Amino acid sequence: MTASLDTSHLHDVHLWGALRPLVGGATSIPMRAATIRELFRKLSDEYPGMEAHIKRGVAVSIDGKIYRDQWDTVLPAGAEIYLMPRVPGG
Amino acid sequence: MPLDTSLVRKQFKVIGTRVRRPDGIDKVTGRAKYGADAFAPGQLIGLVLRSPHAHARIKKIDISKAEKLQGVKAVITAADLPDLTGGDRGMRDILENCMARSKALYDGHAVAAVAAVDAHTAKQALKLIKIDYEVLPHVTDVDEALKPGAPLIHDDIFTDGIEPKPTKPSNFCKLAEYGHGDVEAGFKEADFVIEKSYKTEQTHQGYIEPHACLANVSPDGVAELWVTTQGPFVYRNHCAALLGLDANKLRVTASEIGGGFGGKTHVWAEPLALALSRKANRPVKLTMTRDEVFRATGPTSSASIDVKVGVKKDGTVTAAFAELRYQNGAFPFTWAEFGAMTAFACYDFKNVKTVSRDAVVNRPKCAAYRAPSAPIAAFAVESTMDMAAKAIGMDPIDFRIKNAAREGTKSSYGPVFGPIGIGPTLEAAKKHAHWNAPLGENQGRGMACGFWFNFGGQTCVDLNVTPDGSVTVALGTIDVGGSRASMALAVAEELGVAYEQVRCVVADTSSLGHNDMTDGSRGTFSSSMAAVDAARKAIHTMRERAAKIWEIPLDEVEWIDGQAKAVGEKHGNKAPLSIKEIAAQAANTGGPIAGHSEIVADGAGVSFATHICDAEVDPETGRTSIKRYTVIQDAGKAMHPSYVEGQYQGGAAQGIGWALNEEYIYGKDGRLQNAGFLDYRIPVCSDLPFIDTQILEIPNPNHPYGVRGVGETSIVPPLGAIGNAISNAAGVRLNHVPMSPPRVLKAIKDAR
Amino acid sequence: MSVKVSTTINGDAVDFVCQPDEPLLDVLRNRLGLTGAKEGCGTGDCGACSVILDGRLVCSCLVLGVEMEGKKLETVEGLADGPKLHPLQQQFIDGAALQCGICTPGFLIAAKALLDKNPDPSEEEIRFGLAGNLCRCTGYDKIVRAVQAAAKEMRGA
Question: Inter-chain contact C128–B686, Cβ cutoff 8 Å?
Fold first, then answer.
């Protein structure tokens, strides 16, 4: 499931409330990325404070399916990408 | 060869059968070893001294007399646990929760610990420790803690989520918001607007086995820990980090676990046992009393919630809003935020908004409790939804079906849902015989829905084919309710052999790579995925071995029904090779045969349930008894249906206890008044009816067998379902959980 | 000051020495190596330490070791007859009446005490007979069914 960079697509990346202040208040930002890893790297590079959040735990919903750990997961063209807090379980 | 996690199996040979669990005989004969059942030569007994105060500055601790008592081998305080957390707030909080540093933050907070030759001596030693406390004002209620001027628990909490960040510290640790649309405009469109405020009291997971461990640390830094835990690898990592041990030198072995439900995801006294052992250079056994379990482990939040739902006469919800305030105990976390995420997740609302306020109070540090935070939010939402259905005269199931989330719905926590199972559980509830059965006097029927995120996580499985052709499987996720049986089923299914030919054990932390905890309903979902992966790898190896034995190319060997078969016309005369035959020749075909899997099981898929409940309310005493109860939930594929039913029934029973009886009661002095099973009353056998279950099997496309996690969602609907049933039985709407006899009686009297 | 006690446990003569204030549960677990009885509360509320003392169901955390002099004790370790499981034990396994299993020894002993006195209990009698034992995993559903099945088997019905 590893993708090379040339398969990256432009996504409208939705952010949950806690991340919005880091991007100036927007609910979503355009970002070109092929995988969760590339998305996180670019977010960390472009937005100060984002890296700390990612370290604490950010989950990525891809078309409603929630990914927490598998950063090689591909972000398909046209998929809804939503960043969420990492939820614990009992 | 990466694992293809996509759903492939539709027909099964052994998956779905009700086999006997491999640990059954040990558990019915008393042989199974739990946390407190291990003994080491020369072991000491460890005991913990705990703060009697809800909030106090520790001015001085004098351990000199205790240390001099004959038979005492070690006394420790926070000074023996230096802060090695390097600025990691989460780890520092765990350290400070294990042992108070400058302040005791709740009744029961550990302040010192001793290890002595026997329990009698250790108890005497605790009495000889002198602590000079400066008692501080305290706060245990979430709404009180959020008020300006409330006693301040930490001076370094500045509310997260408020821009710009506050400059004054407070107990308000996090603000968060979820939702979409315009709720104010939505409420204007409504024919009825229902508003109600709710409170739920703090509950404990109530596992019957108290925390227990046996720690053994040598002066060279090599250490062993036998412990009851949901996550031996996480315990290893946390204990090693807190004590400055190398993780590879700390071998953690999980005992059989006597229940966890989230409460054994977190280290409590284990680092103290290790620190005592290190100081004494002797093994130390430390078991908590029930009183300590209640006062000083990790119950779930108490909460205060306001809900507002706007509805049209045709049943359309025009807007929904909730503000959720949860206390996290004495350390900051985001339990209210998870409530805000889950509150309206069952529904497709155009305009929805939730706001969460997390607070710290002088109570024990909250931990996860089965679908953490969700039952609390669901109680408030499902009660209000029922009131909305009543306001427009609509059947509560029809009302929920009309508003249910479906594929393509924008969820209340943000993303758009893929294929989900709330609709089928509601349709099944409507058709269920229970929904239309007659009711007796003083009885009422209620229903409610529930949602929970499931997850997967890091998982390892080692599969080894023994020389006689039987199969051993080492798992990294501990077995809370029969998962060793389910994993053996998965391996047997994949290899094409009998269930009895596969033996699963739970490995220690030195024998397998890191595994995340058994939480988040992940045990069966993720370990079965890794077990399938390991089995497929072993099959590949066995095909290679058969090809060597036959001296033919690999692609002419297939694996069919537990045997290698040579395919093609040339090989028509070759008898198939069984695992036993291939294993017998392993030495001459390349050595031992194994399959290993190290994966991240992601994409678990969210989970929904619908419950139906009949309650009878005694109008004289206010006592509610549950007459009939039905759980309907999607399992994807039930690997072992008995244990899936068991999860549904157990979650429902915990929810019934939470709804009707269980609560932490704090006195004005900030001390817990009911730290025992007599006064914190969990349901007993005579309190409950048989709990009916209906397992729906809508395969999970992200698991080779279609499995979903099933462990948690069943605790989410009961509070709401029972509140709704009481409302229909007694004509009163309870807004305070537990709905104990005094509260129900008061509501009945107030209504007269 | 230790006290010497002579007693019978699961049909065997057993001598032990204990403190006068030492609970029977501690004697069983720490001195005799019989760890089948579990401590869930130490206050008689959970039943995980249930044993049968001279035919009576008791919580071993509420009995003193010294009270055992000349008495007959049955614990979960004595339930099976050699390799043959007691019908209750077999039905608990077959009926998935245990999840974590910590309460199981206590339930088996309580159920045996019930069936010793009442071989054909109603569902309600089973529920009240087991009301002194806490289980947090199962919701009791499969436990009650397993006891019903064992009772039926033991009656030869």
Answer: yes
Q: Do chains A and B touch (3 or more CB pairs under 8 A)?
A: yes
Domains B24-32+456-600 and B303-454+605-751 share a fold: yes
Contact yes or no for C133 and B28 at CB 8 A: no
Using the 3D structure, point to which of C77, C105, C124 is the last residue of a domain. Answer: C77
Cα distance from C26 to chain B (closest Cα, Å)?
11
- The CATH superfamily label for domain B35-136+210-257+264-296 reads Aldehyde oxidase/xanthine dehydrogenase, a/b hammerhead (3.90.1170.50)
Our answer on whether C and A touch (3+ beta-carbon pairs < 8 Å) is no
* Coil, strand or helix at B133: strand
| Nearest CA-CA partner of B579 in B689, B665, B502 | B502
CB contact under 8 A, A87 and B453: yes
Q: Per-block average pLDDT, block size 10, for chain B (752 residues)? A: 75 95 97 98 98 98 98 98 94 98 98 97 98 98 97 97 93 96 98 98 98 97 97 97 97 98 96 98 98 98 98 98 98 97 97 98 98 98 98 98 96 90 95 98 98 91 97 95 93 96 97 91 90 97 97 96 92 91 97 96 88 98 98 95 97 98 98 98 98 94 90 97 98 98 97 90
What is the span of the domain harbouring residue C145? 87-154
Residues of C in contact with B287 (CB under 8 A): 39
All chains having 3 or more CB pairs closer than 8 angstroms to chain B: A, C
Residues of A in contact with B453 (CB under 8 A): 66, 87, 89
CB contact under 8 A, B208 and C79: no
At B43 the three-state DSSP class reads coil
Whole-angstrom distance, CA of residue C84 vs CA of residue B51: 50
Among B241, B353, B230, B391, residue whose Cα is nearest residue B298: B230
Inter-chain residue contact A90 with B369, CB threshold 8 Å: yes
